[in-house]
Amino acid sequence: MLNEKYTSIVKFDFQYAHRFMNWPREAKHLHGHSGLVTIELEDTVDPVTGYAHACKDGFKKAWEVCDHFHHATILQEGDPLLEAMLAVYKKAGITNDPEHCVPLKKIDHPLAWSYPEYRIVVSKKVTTCENWCELLYELLKDKMPIKKITFRSSSMNCASKVFK
Predict the structure, then answer these.
(1) CA 69, CA 50: separation in Å to the nearest integer?
(2) pLDDT digits (tens, 9 = 90+) for 108-148
(3) Which residue, 103, 126, 127, 125, is CA-closest to 116?
(4) Torsions phi, psi of 162, nearest 5?
(5) Higher confidence at residue 121 or residue 99?
(6) Phi and psi (nearest 5°) for 163?
(7) Element (H, E) at 87
(8) How many helical (H) and strand (E) elements, i.e. helices and strands, does the chain have?
């Protein structure tokens, strides 16, 4: 019984804007979503705390990464909107002002990188629910024992991936 695995579940949502750069239909236009993330963490129960993984700790670790996407614009690598947005943000002085906004560290990963001062993230892949699962796993896998990630961008779009 001591080595049995249990699953703790962390859920949160964040709002973001994105587009499918090469998509022929409506999603080629910049639009927004409320993404709902469910992360299942698998571990043995700690005999002192009684938790396999304290959900508050899991939420905090996950939010350190996911806050980069909250109220951010996510563009795919090669999107011509990126340079235009950066130029407009710079000219208009639209920044993630540390006096009024949560300061963010730069994401620098093969699947995504960021301009934290503008809350813009560039993704290597189109940001489908399937690719969100992969990206979030890659950014979080060293912080927590992830068993499964589910990402929902709307009532119609959802994907899950089991890891390990």
Answers:
(1) 32
(2) 999 999 999 999 999 999 999 999 999 999 999 999 999 99
(3) 103
(4) -95, 135
(5) 121
(6) -115, 155
(7) helix 81-92
(8) 3, 8
What 3-state DSSP class applies to 66? helix
Report, as an integer, the average pLDDT of 56-61. Answer: 90
Is residue 149 within 8 A of residue 160, CB to CB? The reply is: yes
| Tokens 């890659």 found at | 138
Tell me the fold of 5-162: Tetrahydropterin Synthase; Chain A (3.30.479)
CA–CA separation, 142 vs 144, rounded Å?
6
How far, in Å, CA of 17 to CA of 29, rounded? 10
Distances (CA, A) of 142 to 12, 13, 136, 138: 19, 21, 11, 8
